[in-house]
Design brief:
293 residues; alpha/beta; globular; 17% strand
């Protein structure tokens, strides 16, 4: 089934899975929401059997989550089954902090899918339901690329999902995601490696630079003039470069390198842009700026 592209959307309830699925639908995917895991292989096999006909969907997105809680333990074996069939897939896990999820449920007044858990004779509080959901999704999360949705809008999430899928659909190589963020708003949940650059000279304290970002030339010139900034950039680049081949051999599809400063506007943005520019020569690269936009 080499002509097809399969993406699984999973993650925490309230993290934006419906938004992600809608983005893939807009991108031309045939989308199936809440397909029970035990039916996935049969569905894919049906697509393989139809490969020579026009009825085959060339791009498929399937949402799997705790609405099929009883079947979730089957899902890892489903992924193994796809690998044994030689079927490539991407697994995206949407996540947000417990505080964010509680706030979203409070705003919408919706019930969590696990509020009436089969193992309980009472209705679970929202915090209990979220904790149970995290437990049920633990193994799936460890196998997925994580997208943190707590600090981004729906339009940003749609762009991120499309970039992750479309940006690498022609390449089987490991994709490097460079992400800038502000420590004052917390470390990104999707980060594989985190670098703290708050000790570097801060353009925020220069009146003519405060309102700009690390993508603006005056800020770039200011940081480029600092030997410490160049040292940090060189050392981060060397660390990442050293370990990318091992990560690729471990069959990783993505690795997220998060770089944080105080406000996520200047130093981290500058370093992400410079590192992305350097790594694009040898690797597929995606750029995210959590605090911009």
């Amino acid at each position: 089934m080499s002509a097809s592209e399969i993406v699984f959307i999973t993650g925490m309830s309230g993290s934006g899975k419906s938004v992600a699925l809608r983005a893939l639908e807009d991108a031309g995917f045939y989308c199936v929401d809440n397909l029970p895991p035990e039916l996935v292989l049969a569905f894919i096999d049906l697509q393989i059997a139809s490969e020579t006909t026009s009825s085959m969907a060339s791009r498929i997105a399937i949402a799997v989550d705790v609405r099929s809680a009883k079947s979730l333990p089957v899902f890892p074996s489903v992924l193994t089954g796809l690998q044994s069939r030689g079927v490539a897939y991407k697994l995206l896990f949407l996540d947000a902090s417990d505080e964010t999820l509680v706030h979203r449920y409070s705003e919408t007044r919706r019930l969590h899918p696990l509020s009436s858990a089969p193992s309980s004779d009472r209705r679970l509080a929202i915090q209990e339901a979220i904790a149970l959901e995290r437990e049920l999704l633990t193994e799936i999360r460890t196998r997925a690329h994580i997208i943190e949705t707590g600090f981004i809008r729906s339009m940003q999430l749609q762009s991120i999902v499309k970039d992750l899928v479309d940006g690498t659909k022609q390449s089987s190589s490991l994709t490097v995601v460079f992400e800038s963020f502000a420590f004052k708003r917390g470390v990104p949940l999707d980060a594989d490696y985190v670098f703290d650059v708050r000790m570097l000279p801060n353009p925020h304290y220069e009146p003519q630079l405060k309102a700009l970002t690390g993508r603006d030339q005056p800020v770039m010139d200011y940081l480029l003039a600092s030997p410490e900034v160049l040292d940090m950039q060189t050392q981060i680049a060397q660390f990442v470069k050293n370990w990318l081949p091992a990560l690729q051999q471990d069959h990783r599809a993505y690795v997220t390198v998060a770089i944080g400063c105080t406000g996520g506007q200047h130093r981290s943005v500058y370093l992400v842009e410079q590192l992305a520019k350097a790594f694009k020569q040898d690797w597929p690269v995606l750029v995210r700026h959590r605090e911009l936009g």
